[in-house]
Amino acid sequence: MDIRELTEGVSVAPQIAVDDMAAIKAAGFASVISNRPDGEEAGQPSFADIKAAAEAAGLQALHMPVVSGQIAQADVAAFGAALTSLPGPVLAFCKSGTRAATLWTRSQAGQRPVAELLARTNAAGYDMGATVAAMAETAPPALAEPDVRSDIVIVGAGSAGIAVAASLLARDGGLDITIIDPADVHYYQPGWTMVGGGVFDAAQTKRMMGPLIPDAVTWIKAGVAEFLPDADAVVLGDGRVVGYKRLIVCPGLELHWDGIAGLKDTLGRNGVTSNYRYDLAPYTWELVQGLNKGKAIFTQPAMPIKCAGAPQKAMYLSGDAWFRRGVLKDIDIQFMNAGGVLFGVKDYVPALMDYVAKYDVSLNFFHTLTAVDGAAKTATFKVGTPGSDPKEVTVDFDMIHVCPPQRAPAFIRESALADAAGWVDVDQATLRHKTYCNIWSLGDVMNAPNAKTMAAARKQAPVVAVNVLADIAGKSAVGIYDGYGSCPLTVERGKIVLAEFGYGGALLPSFPEWLIDGTKPSRLAWALKAQALPQVYWHAMLKGREWMAGPEKAPL
Asked: Which GO terms describe its molecular function (predicted)?
């Protein structure tokens, strides 16, 4: 049994067995509530059997079945009434305990502060952030006085969060700033492509979080459960409430590994890898070194994703390694792209196609990875070519590099800050929220139509900083973001196609063409990626030194 206490009088649990009743009685419970319909799955005990065993053990039993995702207010009211009428303590259960926890949470609307509801359910292992958000539509939950107040609160201590904090402090060292992030470790994620290509050691991309956060910033080491923008507050996963005058949202996106059936069970073995995870990038290089013949698949999901060129970078560096070893002729490289083009900015495609030809890559467009069977070494794709009915194909592999589908975290997707697609809804020039004028967003979770790259965040941080400070001074926005993003495409060891572009695919080169022509492979661009940019990241971007990143001024 896995009994989880919500209050002294109410606990919840995953499915209990008929033989558990004596132990439940011995634990002090007087009643059980089943929130699970009979016959949901094979082997599930019927409520009749549960009730008979419960009554034999001296427990009262009540059947209040609900279907996941279809809990009505009448179900909530009935559950709340049962908690009052049944002798307690009460143990409610369903398949996982989530429906029982949801019913309890919703039954407490208006009776307990939202912070307490989230703290109790979080401690029990149930994320009720979305439930609390839904409750607000009918009966707004009570809001406790904030436990912490700060003039500027930043959610997320990744590239964007630390950079914008540093940019703010570089302009006004006396600002009261709080940053919220649960992580102990900070990663230079652009380096993982180089780890997977045998160029960097993984340890080069990892540092402890604490020393990177500016000394003048208060760090709350916790996750966010809920935004309450109408109350100028953020609720943490442990139930604490943080109040703010201005909020900056940049927690990074979520890699949705579960979006591909079987993937999580085989990552890091059976020839299945991904440079999108710190612990897996070294395995990519191990596989590349060990493969002398066979089929290597590289996948790219539907946009948006973090660094749209990263799946190709892995492919090119792998092809280059096989070319240098003289085994490329025996390796079948397949690029499976859910989209319909190799790269979204056409000016860079000719150079990339030269390398597609060099490595004899087969390009397969409109192929979306849906399942991986590591033991069988097969990958299944949904093929949705325009103008034809979708079909399913299964392909064998010896090695597969997977780029997972990506999305904003649940506490963003299900919040009042999100647009219909689940991304923070901002003005694409000022990066200010379209509805809440004291909220800004940057980095991967906002919905401006730009590439989601570290280079983009480097340009966005100063824009948000100057606009927040302008707002504090009672002025209009003074900085605009032009959509800049950079994708250094590692086409071979020692050469890079340095793609730099903004909104609408406009080319935004940082260097004169005679120095670096971004549409052609360049050794100087490789030196920039391999040697200069990591130093710029650690010692400039995260320190508020805006080398070639100053904000563009808003038109008067």
From this structure: FAD binding; hydrolase activity; quinone binding; sulfide:quinone oxidoreductase activity
Q: Which residue has the tokens 């539509």?
A: 137
Q: In a 3-state reduction of DSSP, which class is residue 289?
A: helix
The pTM (predicted TM-score) of the whole model is: 0.76
Q: Which of 94, 250, 307, 403 is catalytic?
A: 307
CATH code of the region 257-404: 3.50.50.60
Is 250 marked active-site? no
- If DSSP states are collapsed to H, E and C, what string results for 215-247? CCCEEECCCEEEEEHHHCEEEECCCCEEEEEEE
Annotation marks residue 94 as catalytic: no
Quote the pLDDT of residue 554. 65
Q: In the prediction, which pLDDT does 139 show? A: 44
- Name the stretches of the chain with pLDDT < 70: 133-144, 554-556
pLDDT for the residue 87: 86
- Angle subtended by helix axes 281-290 and 310-325, to nearest 10: 30
Distance CA 469, CA 10 (A): 48
**Which one of 94, 250, 403, 487 is the catalytic residue?**
487
Query: In whole angstroms, what is the distance from residue 196 CA to residue 282 CA?
Result: 6
Which CATH number applies to 4-135: 3.40.50.11600, 3.40.50.1970, 3.90.190.10, 3.40.980.10? Answer: 3.90.190.10
Pick the CATH number of 149-253+408-553 from 3.90.550.10, 2.60.40.3780, 3.30.479.20, 3.50.50.60: 3.50.50.60
**From the centroid of its chain, how far is CA 518?**
30
Position 555 scores a pLDDT of 63
Tokens of 35: 């929130």
Spatial contact of 199 and 530, defined as CB atoms under 8 Å apart: yes
Q: For 45, what's the count of Cα atoms within 13 Å in the CB-facing half-sphere?
A: 21
- CA 87 from centroid of its chain's CA atoms: 43
* 73/83 Cα distance (integer angstroms): 15
Sign of CA dihedral 278, 371, 488, 418: negative
Is the separation of the CB atoms in 506 and 132 below 8 Å? no
Residue 480 belongs to what H/E stretch?
strand 479-480
3-class secondary-structure state, position 367? strand
